[in-house]
């Protein structure tokens, strides 16, 4: 074991991976504790369903993973530059609206209709990410504040626009009408599941972002700015342009997420996904924060963390079979996700803890050496 | 057996990866000034932190007056009469001198502060030792030299009789250093014992009775100053003979490379300008040094010159091109190379690898990118070339994380990057700060080599020895103004010190003649 840990310390990617696994493990332990408190008798079977249930609905796991994968990318990509994009919800909602608008109002050939809807969603999200980016770059307004406010502005604006459009909105049912079939994304044909080709687009987007971050001058500048904005200014990088570009790309990712969610094919013929304008901020945006934290902001890590979060959510719905109220299940899922994500944040602390546990021969106290004094 | 007041016997202190102190023994006699000499990273600060209770040693014991004592934290140290003046002062800026002195040992009755008696005691102490301070002045308003006095008074107020000074002269002018030496001698005469951490040999020769030398965490020896020489000490410290003098050939001056006229830079801290009307030229083939005590506007001036901050007025011309409002990238392309003051904040992206840092100023050039995609092979071979040429040492070559490299090699990496880039002007701000003698020697040689290659070098330094050794011309900056221009060949450290402390300044007319 000790050998493994030493090796892990040497490879950066691997140690991030082990840290994520440990974080997840800690999250599960706490989730189990909550379930035991809520209903001791059923906790083992319920927890088993929570853990394993997702494997029986693998199509749904992928389907629900898609939007949070996209919002996760929106948060994680911006975070690589040191920007905390809390506005994924707003960008997601905007993307959804743009996709809906094109889906309802534009008459296009069947073969390209859904594709144009997806692109429209991307543009909508990009637009909603661009604005906080411009504020940050030109006026140095904190992006956390603007993007939170843009969540509300976006949500109320979209609700208002949808309610005012007779083609899109059915007021008696307080939801949007069914989208035409041509605007829905091609299904992957798994029975009783809405999983569709958007999961492939999402994974491709993650791979593209990975290449951008690691192989291009833009990615080099972006990460340099995220690690040390003073050094990037010193090296003559154009910080303002990069901030705007990063926020626009992040917004585009969240916007795609919104489009993917609303354009998914329904399992019931003749219907579609719908949006209810009920003044609620999209939860998928905030889940993106947890997904990004758990994935250590790396696009590849985010693919896996989105799948994990979706898996736990699917399992959670099944755990309700054992008498757990949906609210309790939500709490457990939230505990698992957020504990995992926060444990990731405390990556270094967890690492030290492990070192301590496995190296008894070392001194009891591991004091960090001041790098300036001791290096 | 001799009477030692403090004995640190066979101290071993390990940090993950390194042994900072390896079986070190240090014995302090009552009433002596004992110097602790070593390069950066030799383990001086760690050893003193063990004595002061900031770290616990794995092995070894500490005795006071022959009795074994356990020092778990600075309060224990204080109870044993051990006080420390840290290299970076531990003062609260917005508190007064008095409040800082009593901090932690506030005299009180039922929780109410009793400042009156504290004030009397502080005034008495400062009279007794000639440490004049105004007890009601705010720390942020007084000079660094004064702040050091406050730190010393803090130890005296606590009635410590074992005083540790960690690199106390780094921030002082030559005159202030002389005063400090006198105060230290006075303490020793009174029977207080002093541990004096430094890497400056002249100061040890001047004031210390004995000296313990550390190298790479190991004890090199314990010598009486009267039986040794500066050369011998430096050999013990570095492990080889060291050249103190930099050899420079005479060099014909070329054209004006950099010209600054009436530069003003506003300050972020106070309402006055941090830089007031600074004008000078730097020519090809000379090293012009901007000397001065820390905090007299040098940092602000360099920020404005390199484009990190805006100037409020004035004109900067580089190679005949007005760059007053140019972007940092444009300045860089126009021939400006910059070794920044704070290498961790500005000079390096610590989370990047060595090779990524080596291309920080040129990753965007056609030889390193193709349609926005970085050519990793080109980066790798360029990094390998620089590493070889400039002898940058690292654990894993080009892919070594910058953070894991030693300070000297980090600085070498910056130097390699800035020198290898096409440039006419090299701005080096405190290029040897915090480096060991070997690295300092190397960097000095490289700077002189730039001058000999016909480049203009603008050196900003706080180290007097460096200023005297390297420069062809010296400009002294005091409170944001150039107060004197000196010829490095004819001036003395004392004269330089007078200008630096503002005690002397050339008249405007003299300046004109000199320029």
UniProtKB/TrEMBL annotation, chain A:
Compartments reported by the entry: Cell membrane
The record's GO molecular-function terms, alphabetically, read: transmembrane transporter activity
User: Transmembrane residues, as ranges?
Assistant: 20-41, 61-79, 86-106, 112-131, 195-213, 243-268, 288-310, 331-354
Q: Which GO terms describe its cellular component?
A: plasma membrane
Which top-level group of life is the source organism from? Bacteria
| UniProt entry keywords in alphabetical sequence | Cell membrane, Membrane, Sugar transport, Transmembrane, Transmembrane helix, Transport
- Membrane topology listed for this record: Multi-pass membrane protein
Q: Quick check: keyword Disulfide bond in the entry?
A: no
Please tell me whether the keyword Membrane is annotated for this protein: yes
Q: Which Pfam families match?
A: BPD_transp_2
The UniProt entry lists the main location of this chain as membrane
Could you tell me which PANTHER family the record lists for this protein?
Answer: ABC TRANSPORTER, PERMEASE PROTEIN, GUANOSINE ABC TRANSPORTER PERMEASE PROTEIN NUPP
Protein name stated in the entry: Simple sugar transport system permease protein
Automatic annotation (TrEMBL), chain B:
The answer to whether keyword Aminoacyl-tRNA synthetase applies is no
User: Gene3D superfamilies, from UniProt?
Assistant: P-loop containing nucleotide triphosphate hydrolases
Compartment(s): Cell membrane
User: Molecular function (GO) terms listed?
Assistant: ATP binding; ATP hydrolysis activity
Signal peptide region: none
InterPro entries noted in UniProt: AAA+_ATPase (IPR003593), ABC_carbohydrate_import_ATPase (IPR050107), ABC_transporter-like_ATP-bd (IPR003439), ABC_transporter-like_CS (IPR017871), P-loop_NTPase (IPR027417)
List, for all copies, the residue spans of the domain called ABC transporter: 6-241, 258-504
Annotated SUPFAM superfamilies: P-loop containing nucleoside triphosphate hydrolases (SSF52540)
| PROSITE patterns tied to this protein | ABC_TRANSPORTER_1 (PS00211), ABC_TRANSPORTER_2 (PS50893)
Topological relation to the membrane, as annotated: Peripheral membrane protein
Protein name in the entry: Nucleoside ABC transporter ATP-binding protein
Query: Which organism was this protein described from?
Result: Desulfosporosinus lacus DSM 15449
- Lineage, top ranks: Bacteria, Bacillati, Bacillota, Clostridia, Eubacteriales
């Amino acid at each position: 074991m000790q050998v493994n840990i030493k090796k892990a310390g040497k490879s950066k990617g691997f140690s991030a991976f082990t840290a994520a696994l440990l974080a997840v493990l800690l999250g599960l332990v706490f989730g189990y504790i909550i379930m035991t408190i809520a209903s001791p008798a059923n906790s083992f079977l319920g927890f088993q369903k929570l853990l394993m249930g997702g494997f029986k609905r693998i199509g749904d796991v992928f389907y629900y993973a898609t939007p949070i994968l996209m919002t996760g990318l929106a948060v994680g990509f911006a975070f690589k530059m040191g920007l905390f994009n809390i506005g994924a919800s707003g960008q997601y909602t905007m993307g959804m609206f743009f996709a809906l608008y094109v889906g309802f109002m534009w008459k296009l050939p069947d073969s390209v209709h859904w594709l144009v809807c997806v692109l429209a969603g991307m543009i909508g999200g990009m637009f909603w990410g661009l604005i906080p980016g411009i504020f940050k770059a030109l006026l140095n307004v904190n992006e956390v504040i603007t993007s939170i406010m843009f969540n509300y502005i976006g949500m109320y604006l979209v609700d208002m626009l949808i309610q005012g459009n007779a083609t899109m909105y059915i007021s008696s049912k307080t939801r949007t009408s069914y989208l035409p079939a041509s605007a829905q994304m091609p299904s992957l044909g798994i029975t009783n599941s809405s999983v569709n080709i958007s999961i492939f687009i999402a994974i491709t987007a993650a791979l593209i972002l990975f290449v951008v971050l690691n192989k291009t001058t833009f990615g080099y500048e972006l990460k340099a700015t995220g690690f040390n904005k003073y050094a990037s200014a010193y090296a003559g990088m154009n910080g303002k342009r990069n901030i705007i570009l990063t926020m626009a790309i992040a917004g585009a990712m969240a916007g795609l997420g919104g489009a993917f969610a609303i354009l998914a094919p329904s399992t019931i013929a003749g219907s579609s996904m719908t949006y209810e304008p009920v003044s609620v901020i999209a939860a998928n945006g905030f889940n993106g924060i947890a997904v990004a934290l758990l994935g250590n902001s790396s696009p590849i890590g985010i693919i896996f963390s989105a799948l994990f979060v979706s898996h736990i959510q699917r399992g959670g719905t099944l755990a309700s079979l054992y008498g757990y109220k949906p609210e309790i299940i939500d709490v457990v899922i939230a505990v698992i996700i957020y504990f995992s994500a926060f444990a990731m944040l405390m990556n270094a602390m967890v690492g030290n803890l492990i070192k301590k546990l496995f190296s008894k021969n070392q001194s009891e106290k591991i004091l960090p050496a001041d790098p300036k004094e001791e290096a | 057996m001799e009477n030692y007041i403090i004995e640190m016997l066979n101290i071993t202190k390990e940090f993950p990866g390194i042994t900072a102190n390896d079986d070190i023994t240090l014995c302090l006699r009552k009433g002596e000034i004992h110097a602790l000499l070593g390069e950066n990273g030799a383990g001086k600060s760690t050893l003193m932190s063990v004595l002061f209770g900031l770290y616990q040693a794995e092995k070894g014991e500490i005795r006071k007056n022959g009795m074994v004592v356990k020092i778990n934290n600075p309060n224990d140290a204080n109870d044993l009469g051990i006080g420390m003046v840290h290299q970076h002062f531990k003062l609260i800026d917005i508190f007064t001198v008095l409040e800082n002195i009593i901090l932690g040992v506030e005299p009180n009755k039922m929780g109410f502060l009793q400042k009156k008696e504290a004030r009397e005691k502080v005034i008495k102490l400062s009279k007794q030792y000639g440490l004049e301070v105004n007890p009601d002045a705010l720390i942020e308003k007084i000079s660094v030299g004064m702040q050091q006095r406050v730190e010393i008074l803090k130890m005296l107020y606590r009635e410590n009789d074992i005083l540790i000074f960690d690199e106390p002269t780094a921030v002082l002018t030559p005159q202030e250093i002389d005063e400090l030496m006198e105060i230290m001698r006075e303490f020793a005469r009174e029977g207080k014992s002093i541990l004096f951490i430094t890497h400056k040999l002249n100061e040890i020769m001047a004031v210390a009775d004995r000296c313990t030398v550390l190298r790479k965490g190991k004890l090199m020896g314990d010598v009486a100053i009267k039986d040794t020489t500066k050369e011998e000490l430096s050999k013990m410290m570095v492990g080889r003979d060291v050249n103190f003098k930099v050899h420079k050939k005479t060099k014909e001056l070329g054209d004006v490379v950099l010209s600054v006229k009436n530069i003003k830079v506003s300050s972020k801290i106070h309402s006055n300008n941090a830089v007031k009307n600074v004008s000078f030229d730097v020519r090809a083939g000379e090293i012009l040094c901007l000397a001065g005590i820390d905090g007299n506007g040098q940092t602000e001036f360099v920020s404005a010159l390199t484009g990190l901050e805006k100037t409020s007025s004035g004109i900067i011309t580089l190679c005949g091109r007005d760059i007053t409002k140019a972007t940092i990238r444009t300045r860089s392309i126009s021939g400006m190379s910059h070794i920044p003051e704070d290498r961790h904040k500005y000079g390096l992206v610590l989370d990047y690898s060595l090779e990524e840092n080596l291309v920080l100023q040129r990753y965007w050039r056609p030889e390193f990118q193709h349609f926005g995609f970085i050519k990793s092979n080109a980066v790798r071979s360029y990094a390998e070339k620089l590493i070889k040429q400039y002898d940058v040492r690292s654990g894993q070559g080009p892919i070594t994380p910058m953070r894991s490299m030693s300070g000297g090699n980090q600085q070498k990496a910056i130097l390699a990057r800035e020198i290898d880039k096409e440039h006419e002007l090299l701005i080096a701000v405190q290029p040897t700060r915090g480096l060991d003698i070997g690295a300092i020697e190397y960097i000095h040689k490289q700077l002189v080599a730039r001058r000999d290659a016909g480049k203009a070098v603008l050196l900003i330094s706080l180290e007097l020895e460096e200023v005297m050794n390297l420069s062809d011309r010296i400009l002294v900056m005091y409170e944001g103004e150039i107060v004197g221009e000196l010829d490095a060949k004819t001036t003395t450290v004392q004269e330089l010190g007078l200008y630096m402390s503002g005690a002397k300044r050339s008249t405007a007319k003299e300046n004109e003649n000199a320029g």
